[in-house]
Write a structure and sequence with these properties.
heterodimer; A: 334 residues; alpha+beta; 12 strands; B: 279 residues; alpha/beta; Elongation Factor Tu (Ef-tu), domain 3; Rossmann fold
Chain lengths: 334, 279
């Protein structure tokens, strides 16, 4: 790790130099509806600096909402030509991720690459650099400190900025991060304590205790109550930085077209439905339970990682006001 | 499986189309590229994704045994968009294939044992692959029995093969149709598979049971086999949850933490008992 300082006055210069390098730069942008979304930008003027969290995560950079797996063309002799070209995936920088978001990329990488490695994710992730900014503010939905993270975590990012008055304290975590550091803009520094500059986020639970208690949670009688309001809209999964479920669909004719992979959600009623009509996860209770146990139990058993980073997006977006940490607390009650 | 990119399919030609029953057909598929044919090696129990470009992919087991070279077969029922498109294909048409995926039946562990197959409806194809694998090396196994049922006589899959198996003399057949599904000249059993199984319990000594079917048959059949003495780790099944990717990523097929596509589809009753009832 290298420690640097960037003065606040130099931030636009640094940011615009990233854009001039020819890479795609994705950053938080304030939209007309007053909400902040990640999108690709052309200059620092477009970038929002006042946000707790974006509505959607930045996972779409490495796992797009709709992604072409290949395109196909039927030739005159009846044979089929299948082409897949990942060489055009652009080098991308994501700016302004929160520390919870960048840690989510660690989970995504384990999930997509540990077993049966996914070449689409691999290519995109290799060409993505993550620049995070520590949180100075938080809201009631934030609970990163309950899942082993904090508003200044460096997990998963290439560079972490922490605003300290007139300066951005800069932790350069990886070689990818180092490659972006311009010696003319950054100065060396000693290690500084970030504590005073970070948001205060109370812990909702001890994750170690939850991991223990969740072992028997499948049988809890609380699931019905906890999932009662769920409308099966899938907003939690679509806004989540670690949800990875997808569907595969064709678009085109039998002559030519493409095969796509599109985000899907375990909360959708047809997600597990068999061709016969039989549905193993019969109701919304079973589906909500799958989602929560996946985050806090199954991904721990399969990959050794709690796959919830406490970003709070699903809590802010849920039209039925379901709250993931309250749900987890209630189904793990003794 | 294409290890560089699991989503790029092989192309295969429909070499033979057989209508098995109303809405049920078997396709014999040959690779359009001979190198692909060599690369594609599989074992009984594995499945594949069969696709019609422009329509999508469907998941079926490989219904022919790996002991018969040069082709693979799949048998499927016409149900939704993709299976309809597949069913509309004719001989010589090109379709796509991805796989093989999943684990396999431990057939070598079964040498010298009696094997009992229990299945119903469109779940005979996954076991037909296993049955044919055994029949192609018949001397290595003890007694082989097949319990199979369908809604009606017309709905029985692989009618010719059922007859062939019965005529061999070394396979005990218990073929049944649901009450009301029999024809006037029907000479076999009438009743649901679990009933016929209970009335004609197989011997469990030195035996292995393999059960496949609609989930209700698996759920009812496994305890019957367990009660009649089969050790839970000698009762095998193959689960067929909804699947899209085949490689443990898309999330559709999960039973608790288990991905049916990569951890299964073959499970023992012992393993099933440790999972939630999500199949």
């Amino acid at each position: 790790m290298e420690l640097k300082i960037l003065t606040s006055a130099n931030i636009p210069t640094f940011f615009n130099s990233l854009i001039q390098s020819g890479k795609v730069v994705v950053a938080p942008v304030l939209k007309k509806n007053g909400k902040v979304f990640f999108e690709s930008v052309e200059s620092y003027d477009q970038v929002s600096t006042d946000y707790i969290q974006t509505v959607f995560s930045a996972k779409s950079v490495v796992f797009p909402k709709v992604e072409e797996l290949f395109s196909y063309t039927k030739k005159e002799d009846g044979s089929v030509e299948i082409t897949n070209d990942l060489s055009s995936v652009p080098e991308t920088i994501i700016w302004g991720l929160r520390p919870c978001d960048s840690s989510a990329f660690n989970y995504l990488t384990e999930f997509f690459l540990r077993e049966n490695p996914d070449s689409y994710y691999k290519t995109r992730k290799e060409r993505t650099t993550l620049i995070s900014i520590s949180c100075a503010k938080a809201d009631d939905a934030c609970f990163c400190t309950s899942v082993g993270l904090n508003p200044g975590s460096t997990e998963g990012c290439d560079i972490l900025f922490t605003a300290m008055g007139d300066i951005f304290y800069t932790e350069v975590m990886t070689e990818k991060g180092k490659a972006l550091i311009d010696a003319k803009l950054f100065t060396e520094t000693e290690e500084k304590s970030k504590e005073a500059h970070l948001a205060k986020i109370n812990t909702k639970f001890s994750i170690e205790e939850i991991k223990e208690r969740i072992q028997n949670a499948y049988e809890s009688t609380q699931w019905k109550h906890e999932s009662m309001g769920c409308l099966s809209c899938g907003a939690c999964a679509f806004s989540c930085p670690t949800c990875t479920c997808f569907d595969i669909q064709d678009e085109g004719t039998t002559e030519n077209g493409k095969r796509l992979r599109c985000w899907d959600a375990c909360g959708f009623g047809q997600f597990t439905q068999h061709a016969s009509g039989h549905n193993p996860k019969t109701n919304q209770t079973a589906r909500r339970r799958q989602r929560l146990l996946h985050k806090f139990k199954y991904s721990v058993e399969n990959l050794g990682i709690v796959s919830c980073v406490g970003c709070g997006r699903c809590i802010r977006i849920c039209p039925a006001h379901l709250n993931i940490f309250e749900n987890i607390l209630n189904v793990t009650k003794a | 499986m294409n290890t560089e990119n699991q989503y790029i399919p092989y192309t295969v030609r429909i070499a033979k189309k057989t209508i098995e029953a109303p809405n049920i057909q078997t396709y014999r598929l040959e690779f359009t590229n001979s190198e692909d044919a060599e690369k594609f090696t599989f074992k009984a129990g594995q499945f594949a994704e069969y696709g019609v470009l422009g329509e999508g992919e469907s998941t079926f087991c490989i219904a022919s045994p790996d002991t018969r070279k040069g082709y693979i077969e799949c048998t499927f029922r016409t149900t939704g968009r993709v299976t309809k498109a597949l069913a509309n294909c004719e001989e010589e048409d090109i379709i796509t294939l991805r796989g093989p995926f999943g684990n396999t039946f431990p057939i070598e562990d079964w040498y010298g044992k009696n094997i009992v197959f229990i299945t119903g409806g469109i779940a005979l194809p996954p076991l037909r692959c296993v049955i044919d694998t055994l029949l192609d090396q018949r001397e290595k196994f003890g007694e082989i029995s097949v319990y199979y049922g369908a809604k009606s006589v017309e709905d029985l899959t692989y009618k010719t093969e059922l007859e062939e198996w019965a005529n061999r003399g070394d396979v005990k057949m218990f073929i049944t149709v649901d009450p009301g599904g029999e024809t006037p000249d029907w000479k076999n059993f009438v009743g649901f598979v679990p009933t016929i199984l209970e009335q004609n319990l197989p011997k469990s000594e030195n035996a292995v049971a393999v059960i496949a079917g609609p989930p209700i048959l698996i759920k009812m059949g496994m305890p019957i086999l367990s009660k009649c003495g089969f050790p839970n780790n000698q009762i095998f099944t193959t689960l067929e949850n909804r699947m899209k990717c085949g490689v443990g990523k898309c999330g559709h097929c999960t039973v608790g933490k288990t991905y049916v596509c990569k951890d299964g589809p073959v499970f023992t009753y012992e393993e099933i008992l440790a999972m939630p009832l999500e199949y």
